[in-house]
Specification:
Subcellular location: Cell membrane
Distance between the termini: 34 Å
Organism: Ectobacillus funiculus
Order of helices and strands: HHHHHHHHHH
Helix content: over 70%
Radius of gyration: 18 Å
Pfam families: YitT_membrane
Main location: membrane
Number of strands: 0
Mean pLDDT: 82
Shape: globular
Number of helices: 10
Strand content: under 5%
Keywords: Cell membrane, Membrane, Transmembrane, Transmembrane helix
Structural class: mainly alpha
Length: 210
């Protein structure tokens, strides 16, 4: 129950940060940002592109992180999609780009960190960042920034230099927040791995006993 509460709270924070970025006209990174760019280029609905891009990451998550993590990730992605969709019910408003970049980036950073610490993610490169931390002990915040930076650079041609630089500032803030919690995120990943070993040992013991 406690984990479920924090997952919902993490999704809520991430959704609020995303809405702030949208109203500040600041670009996001990851598979969501890449899907948005490709949907414009190929004239294909965003949802279809986003779904297709994430399929390989979900397969990878099942193989490396297990079904519990993958199902929780699917739930988290669905929650964020629903919560950000509620933006259309809000009155129209705008936020200055610099303010939106800083505030939105920080809130998203706290939201994603909370999800990571509760053994879930928002799919795509989030999954890859957690796997590389689990296997190679790499900093998930720096990995997140690298992936997002590449996406934002890819979209520079369509958003312009100013918006591009503010987008980089935003993802840098997000990644800094995630890096701050990297030890707690690592502990959560180790806990997941430990539980997996316990289950595997119990299954082997049961087979031998029978």
């Amino acid at each position: 129950m406690k984990r479920s509460f924090y997952i919902v709270l993490g999704c809520l924070l991430t959704s609020i940060g995303t809405i702030i970025l949208q109203h500040a006209h600041v670009m996001t990174g990851g598979t969501a940002g890449l899907s948005l760019i490709l949907s414009y280029m190929l004239d294909i609905p965003f949802g279809a592109v986003f779904f297709l891009i994430n399929i390989p990451f979900y397969v990878l998550a099942v193989r490396v992180m297990g079904w519990s993590f993958t199902v929780a990730t699917l739930v988290s992605v669905t929650l964020v999609s629903f919560m950000t969709g509620l933006d259309r019910l809000l009155p129209s408003f705008s936020i200055p780009m610099p303010v939106g970049a800083v505030l939105g980036g920080a809130i998203i950073g706290f939201g994603i960190s909370m999800l990571f610490m509760n053994r879930t993610s928002l799919g795509g490169t989030n999954i890859l960042a957690l796997i590389l931390q689990k296997k190679l002990n790499w900093n998930p915040g720096k990995l997140n920034f690298t992936f997002d930076f590449l996406v934002v650079c890819f979209g520079f041609y369509s958003i312009g230099v100013v918006q591009g630089l503010l987008s980089i500032l935003s993802i840098a803030i997000t990644s800094s927040v995630i890096s701050y919690f990297k030890s707690k995120i690592a502990t959560s990943n180790q806990s997941t791995q430990h539980h997996g070993h316990v289950k595997q040992y119990s299954a082997q013991t049961t087979i031998k006993a029978s």
